[in-house]
Amino acid sequence: MLTSQLNPDGTALLSIGAESVTLNAHELDQQILRLARLRAQMTERVPEQPPAVESVVFNPAYAIRTDNLTKASLLRLRHEGFGWLNFELPSQEVVNMKKAWTSIVYKLALDVASGAYEGPERRMH
To answer: What is the Cα–Cα distance from 64 to 122, expressed in whole angstroms?
Structure first.
């Protein structure tokens, strides 16, 4: 089994049996990306339903880009471990998400004017 640990110098040590490799942050990012691409190609698919919540990224940075030609939107979310994750959303999915978020705003009685929002504006169009 692969084991991992953070070295005092900030590098990561990965070991399998007697073999080890030390990676800096950029090299580790590249390996994570390669593993994610490999995982996406496996016949055993990622489950359609999300698993139980084990950890949460609080108030992640995000960016949104839109394409007037295709009417699609690119949603980018920053994860501390996985880096920037990119999701292209077709126009119908954007409309569905608008309905869902509008429902949440109504259900939780959120009002930005009341000062409830505590983070910097992160949307980029």
So the answer is: 9
